Amino acid sequence: MTLQLVDRAKAYADRTAIIAEEGVFTYSDLLRVSGIVATRLLSGRNDLEATRICILVPPGWNYVATQWGIWRAGGVAVPMAISHPPAELAYVIDDAEPEAIVAHPSLLDRINDLADERGLPVLTSSVLIQEGPLSEIPLVHEEGPSMILYTSGTTGRPKGVVLTHKNIHAQVESLSSAWGWDGDDHILLHLPLHHVHGIVNVLSSALWNGGKCEILPRFNAVDVWERLSRGDITLYMAVPTIYRRLIGAWQSANSNTRTAWTSGAEACRLTVSGSAALPVSTLELWETMTGQRLLERYGMTEIGMALSNPLEGERRAGYVGNPLPGVEVRLVDEANYPVAEGYPGLIQVRGATVFKEYWHQPEETEAAFTNDGWFRTGDQAVVETGAYRILGRSSVDILKTGGEKISALEIEEVMLTYPGVRECAVVGVPDVDWGDRICAAIVPEGSDALLAHELRAFAKERLATYKVPKEIIIVAELPRNAMGKVTKPAVLKFFNPDKA
C-alpha cells in the first residue's frame, strides 16, 4: 500500500492546501514541490530506505514541503524544536543519527556549528524547495517509519518515538471520524511542528481531508483574534495556556473589538483544547465569551489521541470523554488487573494508532507494553458516569502525602477557582513526616498581590474533601510582567504554613 496521504492529495489538486507567510499553495503545488524535494534528497538513489533527516524549520510552507519530500523519498522526518538551545538540538542529532539536516535560512547559525562538528551536511530549506527536475519517486509502504518525535515524558532523557505512516493514517482517520473533518474545513495553525498536536491533529488531518491549513509563524493573541474575526475559520485547536492568553487579550480589548472577535470565534464549528489539563474556569470563560464549548481530549506522542469528548452531545467539564474510533482504552491497577468504574486506575491503550517503538531503546520499548500489546501510558484516570477523568501522571501528578494518594491536577483545579489566581502548578516536595509536602505555585491575575493567609484559608476549606491538611499547603507567587513573562523565575517566596 502506498502513502494514502499523498494519494488523497491528488484528488484535491486544485484546492488550496496551505496558506502561510510564503504565499498560498494548492495540493498540486504541494505534490510538485515535495516531489522536487524528494528528488534532491535522493540524489540519484532509488530510496532513502528509512534514513533520518532532521528538520529545523519554523511552521510554514517550507516545513510542509520538506516534511512531505522526506516522506516521499522513503526517509524518516525528525522535526526539531526551533526554540531549543544547542545542547538539546545536539542530543536529538546524536540520537537520531541523521544523514543530513534541513534548516531554514533564519536558523542556519543555530545548527551550522553542530553539523560541522559531526560532519553532517546542512540543506537550506528555501533552496531545497526551489523549482527543479523531478525524478521517479519510490513506492513507500505505510508499514515503514515516517517520523521520530522526541518526548521526555517525566523522567530521563528524551526518547525518540517512532511513528509509522500507518500510525499517522490511523490517527487522522480516527480524528476525521470523531470530529467531522471534511474538505470545507479551514483550520488556523500556530502550534509548534515538532509535536503530534500540530503535526497530526491539525496539519495532517487538514491535508488528509482536502481542507485548508492556514499557518501563522508564531503565536500572538491579538493576531489570532484578528484572524478569527474574519469568520471563515471553521476549526481551531490550542493548549489551555493559549486559551488563557486569548481570554486575557479579549478582556483587555475595547467593546467594539470584543464584539468583532466574539463574532469571528462564534463562526467556528469546533474549538479543541489539549496537551494539558483544561481548567474548568478557562472552559467556562471561553464559552461565555465566544459561545464555543471547548472540546477537551487526551493523548500523547506515543498514541496520538485516545480519548475525546463528543462532537455532538454533552462535553462535561473536567472530563475527556471516551475512546476515539479504532482506539481501545482500559484502566488497570498496579497488578495489571482491570478496575471497576468509579475507581482510579492506570491508563493503557491499544490499537493501530499506537507507535512502533522507542528509537534504539529495545528495553524501554518492551517495558512500555504488556504481553498482550497494551501500551502503558503512565497516566492515571477514573471513569465516572461513563466518562474518563484524568488524575495525572502517576510519577509526578499523583502525590502520596500522609498515607493518601492525591491528584495534583485536582488541587490545581480548586486553586484556580480562587479570585485573583491566574495560573497554578502543584508539586510534591519531599518531607520526612508527610512523604510529599504539597507546594502550590501561584501566578496572580493582574498586579494585585494575593494575601497568603486568605489563600491558605480558602485552600483549607475547599480542599478538606481531598484530605489535604492545611499544614502542607505552601504558596509561592511568581511575578510576571505585562507580557506574561515571569520576571524573577529563579526567586520564589515561600510562605511558612505554620505561621499562617
Name the overall outline: globular
How helix-rich are the residues, as a percent range? 25-40%
How is the largest sheet built, in terms of strand order?
2-1-10-9-11-12-13-14-15
Low-confidence region ranges: 467-500
Q: Can you name the CATH architecture of the domain at 398-499?
A: 2-Layer Sandwich
Q: Decide which structural class fits the backbone.
A: alpha/beta
Verbal overview:
With 500 residues, this protein is of the alpha/beta class. The protein has a domain at 398-499: GMP Synthetase, Chain A, domain 3 (2-Layer Sandwich), CATH 3.30.300.30. 32% of the residues lie in helices and 27% in strands. The protein contains 15 helices and 26 strands. The chain has a nine-stranded mixed beta sheet with strand order 2-1-10-9-11-12-13-14-15. Strands 4-3-5-6 form a four-stranded parallel beta sheet, sandwiched between helices. The chain has a four-stranded antiparallel beta sheet with strand order 16-17-19-20. Strand 21 and strand 22 (404-407) form a beta hairpin. 44% of the residues are buried. The model is unreliable at 467-500 (pLDDT under 50).
Put the structure in a nutshell.
It contains 15 helices and 26 strands. By secondary structure, the chain is an alpha/beta fold. Strand 13 (295-300) and strand 14 form a beta hairpin.
